[in-house]
Amino acid sequence: MFRPPRCAHRGAANAADREDISQKVHIADASATNGYVSGRFGYRSCRMAPHTVGIMTDTIDFNEMNRKVIAEFRENGGKAGGFAEGVPLVLVHHIGAKSGIERIAPLVPYVDGDRIFIFASKGGSDENPAWYHNLVANPSTTVEYGTQTFPVVARVLPRAERDEIYAEQVTVQPQFGDYQRNTDRVIPVIELQRTGH
């Protein structure tokens, strides 16, 4: 479910090139979201078994994988197993800028104390993920982190602050360095500023 960086052997993007396979609150519908989940799932697959990536991307049901990660996250105090084991996750609710439909994007954050940052990497794609546009249009939203659910306001970081936080994320999640190298766009960083308890 987490989109891999572009592998040299894969060339063009395919159906798995999705960074947040977003989910409607009750009904999964990734095709309608054009969203992607960002993180280590695909990165591990690409690095560990590059010859299997094509097979995996053609056969994996990313909607189902996404549902399982969200369910495991909620059942296990903010943690998921399988490919997600050991990877920090935050569930970001976002309202469609055009549709008005609420969806959920599991993302790999950078956490600094009480501050949570997310990255519109789309695995190094040349366009921003749909959830990013939705948060820009509707910045007041809800996130789930650990065992807590709380309201936030999404703030896109200015360039200097963005560069600092992105570098920190690359230190702990090196695949984000690959994502930035794969695209000419500057991958946005968004702070999820808590507004309540």
Key words describing this protein structure:
197 residues, 31% helix, single chain, globular, alpha+beta, disordered N terminus
Task: Annotate the secondary structure layout.
Elements: E1 23-24, H1 30-33, H2 41-48, H3 53-59, H4 62-75, E2 90-95, E3 102-107, E4 110-112, E5 115-119, H5 130-137, E6 140-145, E7 148-156, H6 159-172, H7 175-181, E8 189-194
Antiparallel strand pairs: 1-3, 2-3, 2-6, 4-5, 5-8, 6-7, 7-8
3D architecture notes:
The protein is an alpha+beta fold and 197 residues long. Helices cover 31% and strands 22% of the residues. The chain is built from seven helices and eight strands; from the N terminus they run βααααββββαββααβ. It has an eight-stranded antiparallel β-sheet, with helices on both faces. Residues 1-57 have low confidence and may be disordered.
Question: Which regions have little confidence, pLDDT < 50, spanning 5+ residues?
Answer: 1-57
Number of helices: 7
Number of strand segments: 8
What's the story with the biggest beta sheet?
8 strands, antiparallel
Helix fraction, binned, reads 25-40%
Into which percentage range does the β-strand content fall? 15-25%
Based on secondary structure, the structural category is alpha+beta
Please provide the ordered H/E string of secondary-structure elements: EHHHHEEEEHEEHHE
**Strand neighbour order, sheet with most strands:** 1-3-2-6-7-8-5-4
Mean pLDDT: 76
Q: What characteristic shape results from the CA principal axes?
A: globular
Overall radius of gyration: 15 Å
| Through-space gap between termini | 30 Å
